[in-house]
Amino acid sequence: MNVSLRRSLGFTLLEVMVVVVIVAIFAAIAIPTYQNFIRQSAAAQAQQEVQRIATLLEQAKSRNFNYIGFNLNPNPTVVPFGATGTAIKYSITVMDGTDPTQLLSATGVAGQDYIIRALSTDNKNFSFIFSSTGLRCKKIGTSMDYNCTGAETW
């Protein structure tokens, strides 16, 4: 009895389609998770930079008894440091706590309080407010009021 066995030299279309579907499922899970990780990383960097600036402000106050004349260089500071264009994840500014429309280096500011705002460039990430009066809040989006309207604490 001479039985000829057929030898397979490749994959069937069904096998290839099953593999493509499995890879697509993995990608559908992995890509949003990765994007969320990148957002969290940028937010942590911004929080760290805000706290670093707050430390610099407190050092300035301990020398001068107020915050008048504090100049953030560059102003605004960006995260990641030195980024330009679309690579900027956060823009951080320091303003007078009594009048948030004025820089601490402006003429005639009270200089007894400060407020730091870190605005995200990604509307799915947090923006932050940090002040010398203990105000700490975060809100998802690319804009945020200095009074933390609609925000949560951080």
Commentary on this structure:
With 154 residues, this protein is α+β, with helices and mostly antiparallel strands. The protein is 34% helix and 19% strand. It has one helix and six strands, in the order αββββββ. The chain has a six-stranded antiparallel beta sheet with strand order 1-2-3-4-5-6, with helices on one face. It is rod-shaped, with a radius of gyration of 26 Å.
Given the structure, what is the number of helices? 1
How helical, in percent, are the residues?
25-40%
Low-confidence runs? none
Tally the beta strands: 6
The global form is rod-shaped
Order of helices and strands: HEEEEEE
Assembly type? single chain
Main sheet makeup: 6 strands, antiparallel
Distance between the termini: 80 Å
Mean pLDDT: 92
**Binned strand content:** 15-25%
Radius of gyration, rounded? 26 Å
Largest sheet, order of strands side by side?
1-2-3-4-5-6
Structural category: alpha+beta
Brief digest:
This protein is α+β, with helices and mostly antiparallel strands and 154 residues long.
List keywords for this structure.
154 residues, six-stranded antiparallel β-sheet, alpha+beta, 34% helix, 1 helix
What is the element layout, followed by pairings?
Elements: H1 13-64, E1 77-79, E2 90-96, E3 114-120, E4 126-131, E5 136-140, E6 152-153
Antiparallel strand pairs: 1-2, 2-3, 3-4, 4-5, 5-6
